[in-house]
Amino acid sequence: QVKESGRNAIAFFNENMAYAVKNQLVLEGELHRAVEEKQFELMYQPKVDVQTGTLTGAEALLRWHHPERGLVSPALFIGALESSGLIVDLGQWILEEACQKLTLWQKLGLWHTGMRLSVNISPRQFRRTEFVDDVKTTLRNKPYLKGALDMEITESVVIGNIDETVSIMHELCDAGLSFSLDDFGTGYSSISYLKRLPVSTLKIDKSFVRDIRVDRNDKVLVETMASMGRHLGLTVVAEGVEEQEQLTLIKEFGCDEYQGFYFGQAIPADDFAHVLKSSCKTAV
Ligand code: C2E
Ligand code: MG
Ligand code: MG
Ligand code: MG
């Protein structure tokens, strides 16, 4: 009996693996086509000042308009973009697209000094030898983007070579960019990287914020991360704020900014321009 169930377990495992591999191949095929047929769009999620409730910028988030399945969340395909290498070209498109929108919003007078637009950079993209040159080329003749563009990275960009990572980041900081450490607290060595990487912002992962009202551990962790970030002179952003009570707590803990469904989810560029416009009116 033991043998039998053992064999079954193995067969089950293999079938699941085969299924996963097949799915992965189908997905990669679809993604290739999606790149060719430009089925991607960037949407923008507002970032908000915790104290004043005013806009501090936005994070550009990738969306895939799948011909049959509709709008697909990046959680389901970022991994495949990364493993297939498609993220390299698409990542460059994401950067250019975000810069183009930023240029437009600045020209329309909707983008105030001090506001930042963040773009997520994948490890594979960051580690390419051409990365720095490509970014500099994208920024060439656009001095107005200086100080307005931010790159969100996770600790997985480091992969063993911290010195090289630090020097790439310094070179890009010199070109006018800033960096945020994304998904803080979810990795293996967040704190040691925080010490070494030239980041100006720490983003507390939404998995800590979610149960902050009811889970005492989460509450302590968010409070501690916020305090650590503040003492290191960083801007602290809380991700995934969905309710007033969470906002009250992160305010109490000294977070500078938040992002979350409580203020708004990621929306198309034109809609975000309207948000910018109405925030200009309230500011006047
Ligand atoms: P992330 O960079 O940590 O982005 C934040 C995610 O949290 C976004 O999911 C956002 O929609 C979601 N979020 C924001 N507020 C709330 C909230 O109040 N509640 C909940 N439940 N979720 C909230 P999204 O857009 O599905 O993206 C998932 C991940 O995919 C991102 O996590 C990022 O790692 C990756 N990603 C998205 N766009 C890009 C991109 O352009 N390039 C790269 N390389 N990765 C991207
Ligand atoms: Mg991010
Ligand atoms: Mg994040
Ligand atoms: Mg995340």
TrEMBL record:
Sample GO molecular function, one term: cyclic-guanylate-specific phosphodiesterase activity
Coiled-coil region list: none
UniProt domain EAL: residue ranges: 24-280
GO BP terms, alphabetized: cellular response to nitric oxide
Keywords assigned: c-di-GMP
Annotated protein name in UniProt: cyclic-guanylate-specific phosphodiesterase
Organism ancestry: Bacteria, Pseudomonadati, Pseudomonadota, Gammaproteobacteria, Alteromonadales
